[in-house]
Amino acid sequence: MENTENGKKLRVAIIGGGLVGSLSACYFGKRGHEVHLYEYRKDIRKDELARGRSINLALSTRGRRALAGVGLEDKLVSHHGLPMYARMLHMTDGSTRAVPYDPVNNQCIYSVGRRHLNQSLLDEAEDSYNVQTYFEHKLINIDFEDGKLYFRRPACIRNCYPSGPDYWALSTSYPGPEQTYWPDKAELIEAQADLIVGADGAFSTVRRLMSRRPLFNYSQQYIEHGYLELSIPPTEDNQFAMESEYLHIWPRGSFMLIALPNQDKSWTVTLFMSHQQFKSITKSDQLLEFFKTNFPDALKLIGEDRLVKDFFQYDSSSLLSVKCSPYNVGSRAVIIGDAAHAMVPFYGQGMNAGFEDCYLLDDLLHNHGLSLEDALEAFSKTRPINAHAICDLAMYNYVEMRDLVARSTFLWRKKLDTLLYTLAPSKWIPLYNSVTFSHMDYSKCISNRAMQDKALKRMLLAAAVGGLGIVIAVWQKTIRTYLGRKL
Ligand code: FAD
């Protein structure tokens, strides 16, 4: 076994059994460590009511490499992923336009079901890598010096909450203040670990506890827009209601609708707009009017009754970006996934970046002969720069998706990028391709784009100067001819 610390087998406590925590458990389990995974919610494999943040997600190259590292890429991508080769833009006049993600190599991203992915990762962790899982265990405190962890278990989940089963479903992304959610009768559980991996999401408790220590930097930003999930059912003959090999987008400037395909031939449709706009729609007829004006084609596919039911069933959810550093506490703890770098979802990279964390951390811990502390320090030194870069890119892409994507300047830039990418595929990699279809450091993707912008400006300037030279030459010739004639 190639373990860090001269082959020492570690007792690893992973906090959070979401996508990143369960993949991380597979990685540590694969290396022969003793892995205990603690999850605040009920086991989603047994809980029909569990509701995650988004029903499906776009999986791309970084996430696929990380899944391949534990032998899951084929199982999850070939058997479950639905390829999306292009954005399909739905314009206000009802026309549609496909904008391929990679017209040169025809690469695609995959729509995968969050629940299926999470269930498969948990199954794999338990069955193939002997990971011990503990559900309904909420981490409440850590003693970083001794490696002690403290959890609470609810004594009576269903009976304790007045709002019944839905409470459990709705509280997944924000565990909230202790006193609200955890009744007096709750059990207190103690555990011990050599290494604590915080994969407990955007509202991470591990991160909160780390932030009490000196020299921990942290910032968070909510955007003014939220989201709400709707759906398009399969057609009567059980087919997709729209062409399935696309990520459909209805860009409308200050808001947008997107749709990703599901295995059962339905579509998950997400409406992104400002919280204020969500709040302003309080009645069915207002909602229908809004859709008739802005998304008439989508309304036909969703159906009026379904739209009204889905729209008013839940409140819109918030979107948050989190940056922090360092990611480790000595050799004792490290944070990964949304716990370290939650981002707005517009580059489709949150999960992919979290999966990449698992891959990179495993590499540093096991392939470079580093001590545990040095490996965690190295992760903490390199990863935040790249995580901050993708958080920024995701913010930028929000404007691109809902607004710029429909503009002719965007489409011309895409064409120019494609032309240069075709002529020099190893030298001119467009930004979207480097983020989505490569393993290039996210910060390098940004600096690359800055260089490309500079190069394009120079080319345009050269073309303009060249053009001006021709104009002057023609003008001089005309003048000379004119004067010659006159003389
Ligand atoms: P989470 O999925 O939040 O999991 C954290 C887990 O920790 C949860 O199960 C939680 O119950 C548990 N937990 C929390 N606190 C405690 C505690 N105190 N004790 C024990 N357990 C605890 N990413 C993409 O790559 N592609 C996409 O297309 C994409 N689309 C998205 C669309 C939307 C609308 C949103 C909101 C996000 C999207 N993302 C996408 C981002 C992606 O969902 C996240 O990056 C990903 O879920 C992060 O996984 P995680 O395991 O780090 O965190």
TrEMBL record:
Subcellular compartments:
Mitochondrion; Membrane
Its EC top class is oxidoreductase
Q: What is one cellular component GO term in this UniProt entry?
A: mitochondrial outer membrane
What reaction is this protein's catalytic activity?
A: L-kynurenine + NADPH + O2 + H(+) = 3-hydroxy-L-kynurenine + NADP(+) + H2O
Q: Enumerate the Gene Ontology biological process terms.
A: 'de novo' NAD+ biosynthetic process from L-tryptophan; anthranilate metabolic process; kynurenine metabolic process; L-tryptophan catabolic process; quinolinate biosynthetic process
**How does it sit in the bilayer?**
Multi-pass membrane protein
- Matches recorded under InterPro entries: FAD-bd (IPR002938), FAD/NAD-bd_sf (IPR036188), Kynurenine_monooxygenase (IPR027545)
List required co-factors.
FAD
Pfam families in the cross-refs: FAD_binding_3 (PF01494)
In alphabetical order, the GO MF annotations are: FAD binding; kynurenine 3-monooxygenase activity
Q: Which residues form the signal peptide?
A: none
Q: In which pathway does it act?
A: Cofactor biosynthesis; NAD(+) biosynthesis; quinolinate from L-kynurenine: step 1/3
Which stretches are transmembrane? 459-476
Enumerate the UniProt keywords alphabetically: FAD, Flavoprotein, Membrane, Mitochondrion, Monooxygenase, NADP, Oxidoreductase, Pyridine nucleotide biosynthesis, Transmembrane, Transmembrane helix
Q: What is its EC number?
A: 1.14.13.9
Q: Where in the numbering of this chain does the FAD-binding domain appear?
A: 10-142, 192-365
Keyword Oxidoreductase assigned to the entry: answer is yes
Quote the function comment for this protein.
Answer: Catalyzes the hydroxylation of L-kynurenine (L-Kyn) to form 3-hydroxy-L-kynurenine (L-3OHKyn). Required for synthesis of quinolinic acid.
The similarity annotation says: Belongs to the aromatic-ring hydroxylase family. KMO subfamily.
The name of this protein is: Kynurenine 3-monooxygenase
- Organism lineage: Eukaryota, Metazoa, Ecdysozoa, Arthropoda, Hexapoda
